[in-house]
Fold this protein.
Amino acid sequence: MARRLPHLVLVGSLLLGASGCEQKPEIPMSLQLHAEGYLSTSERAITMLRTIQTMDDWIRVEDELDLALREMERHMRQIRARDDKIDRLSTTYEGRIEEAAKAVLAEMFRINDDLDLREQILAREREQESHFRNNARGSRR
């Protein structure tokens, strides 16, 4: 859980940064590129997140996921920097970016809940095995 928390905070800040945009008829190419970069990177992050079933899976993709989330953050910083100069990002991208950020965040929470539950189940199983071994030793004496 502690290892996953920074990712949740980062994705949450990305989601907050994506909201509150208004319509702008023409979008400069540089802004479009960063918006598209954000969207494609978020799709890559979701794909990685959906492969996670165990803590070992998390550890396997953690570095690559961290890079993807930082790339999303970089695109968002560039969008904000350019967006201030041209008024507001078109609702075409604003809605898609907000949905992408929500989807990444939802996957992060799902994995967090799933892995926490699995860790609890594994801990109970280890505890039961330990009791079983201790009881088996006691009956042999």
Observations:
- The chain is about 85% helix and 0% strand.
- The chain has one domain: 5-110.
